[in-house]
Amino acid sequence: MQQLRSVDPCQSVGDVAFDCQISDEQMLDSDNEALAANLRAWNRFGAAEYLAGITERVLTFAVDYAREREQFGRKIGSFQAVQHMLADIAVATRSLVNLMDLSSTEMSDVDDAERVMISVTAKARAGAQSVSACETVLQVLGGIGYTVEHSLNHFFKRALSLAAQQGSPADLHLLAGRLLLARSENC
Length: 187
Hints:
By secondary structure, the protein is mostly helical. 72% of the residues lie in helices and 5% in strands. It is built from six helices and four strands; from the N terminus they run E-E-H-H-E-E-H-H-H-H. The N and C termini lie far apart (43 Å).
């Protein structure tokens, strides 16, 4: 295993190589390929769920902070710009949570190809939304969110790390497009 540098100090990242012999029949066995795709789909979906949880948590940080922090003799939550940022995060977070709830119900009830598509689209949306929410919450919290002492720093690094694993949102959008094209060609 080769240890790689991670933006999240709480998460080890590395390249793992296996030295093993696999016969041609095993390589071409469609059951093994389907099992691997299914495992990747569930793993990707688990990361999406984790990202959705991060998004909800950082929204709570921002709302709590806006209720307490005073600037110019007023709570910052009373400023329209802050209210708009929090409202945008809240709407996007609620949308993401609803998507994850619906997707988690469907993941068990569909065939393997549809499970892969659900996991790809859920992970792409969760990765993009979680990183975006963390960036906006950093603005609401100001400098305190950048410090390693604040929990937001930990959650932001975890969101960046998870969003990049198993395909960035941009990579997953391309994969979803390829999967849809492959389906239309098979019809």
